[in-house]
Predict the structure.
Amino acid sequence: MKRYVLSLLLVLLVSSWGHAADLGEIVVVGPSWNKFTNHDGTGLYHEILNKIFTEQGVPVRRIYVSSQRGNDLVAAGKADMMTCRDRAPSPLFLARYAMYEGEFHCFFNLKRQGVWQGPESMAGKSVVFRLGYYAPKNFPEGTILKEVKTADAALGMVVLGRADFYIDDLNFINESVKASTVPFSKDDYDIQVAGRRQYFPVLRDSLRGRQIEEMYAKGIERLHASGELQSIFEKWGFPYPHYEFSE
């Protein structure tokens, strides 16, 4: 009986992939990030999703929430997609193609940490980052992880000596430095590349989630083949992901 139900679901899934209009409105959640998901509807993620869905007759509605709240909404079936993460706990899954690929950086005190020797400089040290943004796999073994709610709080912990390294994308670190309410001398600090990773849309492992992911994947392949996708990345000043497409 279970095999019959599974087979039926697969048949329904395959047969419905070609009917984009059947999806109705797609609800996408996640934070508002500068140049990725600006509140005015511009940005890398907005533009890619508009090309894949909106311009193909499937409306997209964006709700701005934290990454963790976004994951919770998708897991509960109250939203369709969260943009973007590098991992997805059950019942969530990652889309097959990344929407962004880039380096993440660390901010640290030169006098306390010494000359940067690469990511291994963080081994055995404490790193602080925003809640849910990173995981042990992103750091050398033995790194002590600390999570806080805001980037300003993460930077403040390093400045106050309560953590060794603040981890984030470079533009977010720079924004945190500018917005910091804790006084410090910039000459005492350094910013270095701490690693590299890809970020994928997060969806719920369900019939609808798989339908949306299939349309997303076909859209990425189409935009890549036409050269439109690379133009979008160039427009926003981001590196083009290393895509691997199956034959």
In short: The CA atoms of residues 221 and 246 lie 10 Å apart. The longest helix spans residues 207-226. Strands lie at 26-30, 60-64, 81-85, 92-94, 100-109, 126-130, 144-148, 165-168, 189-204.
